[in-house]
């Protein structure tokens, strides 16, 4: 696992989200970045039903870079701890089976999607963050690309 920096990028006054993504895309390509596809990360929140006592949340995250996995953040009973979980994509079906205990929050699915670039040893992702139809901001992710474990001669 490499080092990754995730930064919220402020949208300047008078500019829209797509305009800023376009400006950042031009900057990355001028620095030698090569478009290598697109990405999408989403998060859906489930809350426990009132009959279970204290309300707890489960946040499910999906990442197009790891399509066979689901990441979850579960609030522990004490409320001051969070448990991280990685499961296969059947975990989504399990959450449907647990609908008597956990309900999906309405209109809270948030996602970040956009282009990804390779620039030298780095991977750069420019994401437009939306909640439903509403634009919420821009995320810039920069990470060190994984190197091959077996060098080629």
TrEMBL record:
Q: Which GO terms describe its biological process?
A: regulation of transcription by RNA polymerase II
GO MF, one term, reads: transcription coactivator activity
Main site of residence?
Answer: nucleus
Q: Name one Pfam family in it.
A: Med20
What are the UniProt keywords, alphabetically?
Activator, Nucleus, Transcription, Transcription regulation
A cellular component term from Gene Ontology for this protein is:
mediator complex
Q: State the InterPro entries in the record.
A: Mediator_Med20
Q: Where in the cell is it found?
A: Nucleus
* Protein family per UniProt: Belongs to the Mediator complex subunit 20 family.
Entry function: Component of the Mediator complex, a coactivator involved in the regulated transcription of nearly all RNA polymerase II-dependent genes. Mediator functions as a bridge to convey information from gene-specific regulatory proteins to the basal RNA polymerase II transcription machinery. Mediator is recruited to promoters by direct interactions with regulatory proteins and serves as a scaffold for the assembly of a functional preinitiation complex with RNA polymerase II and the general transcription factors.
Listed under subunit, the entry gives: Component of the Mediator complex.
Protein name (database record): Mediator of RNA polymerase II transcription subunit 20
Task: Give the species.
Answer: Daphnia magna
What broad taxonomic lineage does this protein's source fall under? Eukaryota, Metazoa, Ecdysozoa, Arthropoda, Crustacea
Query: What would be the name of the gene that encodes this protein?
Result: MED20
């Amino acid at each position: 696992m490499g080092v990754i920096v995730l930064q919220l990028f402020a949208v300047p006054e008078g500019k829209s989200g797509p305009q800023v993504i376009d400006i950042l895309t031009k900057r990355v390509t001028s620095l030698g970045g090569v478009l290598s596809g697109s990405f999408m990360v989403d998060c859906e929140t489930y809350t426990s039903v009132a009959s279970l006592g204290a309300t707890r949340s489960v946040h499910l995250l999906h990442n197009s870079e790891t399509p066979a996995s689901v990441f979850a953040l579960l609030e522990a009973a004490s409320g001051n701890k969070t448990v991280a979980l990685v499961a296969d994509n059947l975990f989504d079906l399990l959450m449907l089976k647990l609908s008597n205990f956990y309900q999906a929050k309405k209109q809270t699915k948030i996602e970040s999607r956009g282009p990804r670039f390779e620039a030298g040893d780095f991977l750069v992702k420019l994401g437009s963050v939306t909640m439903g139809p509403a634009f919420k901001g821009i995320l810039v992710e920069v990470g060190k690309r994984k190197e091959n474990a077996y060098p080629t001669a």
